[in-house]
Amino acid sequence: MGVMINGTYQSNDPGPDSGAAGEFKRAASTIRNWITADGMTGFAPDTGRYHLFAAWNCPWAHRVLATRAVLGLRDAISVSYALPRRTPEGWVFDASGDYADPLMSARALHEIYAAHPEPYTGRVTVPVLWDKTLGQIVSNESADIMRMLGRAFDPDARLCPDHLIKEIDAWNALTYPTLNNGVYRAGFARSQEAYDRAVAEVFETLDKLDAHLSHHKTLVGDSVTEADLRVFPTLVRFDVAYHYAFKCNIRRLMDYPNLWDYARALWALPGLAETVKPEIYKTGYFSQSDLRNPLGIVPAGPQIDWAKPAKRTLSV
Prior knowledge:
Strand order of the largest sheet: 6-5-8-9
CATH topology of the largest domain: Glutaredoxin
Structural class: alpha+beta
Number of strands: 9
Number of domains: 2
Shape: globular
Strand content: 5-15%
């Protein structure tokens, strides 16, 4: 994905960070301004003011796209979609078409980072939320962007109401390191020990989710919250990508009766299925990699029927 050093792009990508024990370490996001309902931070939730830079295959961008979709914010926040496969220039855009950048006509995402007023040092990642009024990046942290959309842009704060925030945060604190990032810790592990620890945590969390969902419709409360939308991108990628490409193969999502039903019920939410791109996931996760897929052969399967009706019905 490339790195920026003092606002200048470096194409020599060092690759995933790993600790002494071979454990995958994800770099922290560092541009973290905040949009509030009252605009007192200097960032108000004005319709048409913000633009999102995303990629269909990135789960961190997907959680933001999912939030935008279920809250009906398509007209409020425009989007540029990067091409599914990165190049030496990192995330890139076509000159025209579905993968063009209609806002700044950028050819690569690092141009957006370079346009930020403060010289940026760090990884060039999606999602990026851009403020068209101030001409700067608001945030490149997906969790923050989700929370801002759910709190500042929705007057009813349906995805994260005050009385449920502690529970939502508790689920997020579990699912992020062990599941959302856990599959990457397994897939990018550089030692058997690191892989064993990561994959065990992935399935411990899936087991816990399935048990919880045996007697709850959602993770928190009776309707969909931020906690559900943070889990969803991992679930829709699990059987088609993580199970095979990242060796998270103890069980499939489809082997969990409650979790599989819950995932399909989320998929059926208005607008959410449109954010799911299984073929793009396969192309991305099975791209050529010396460590994971030296020949770059993309598998034909699996066949997954997301449209199969779920027993539960969910709403926001």
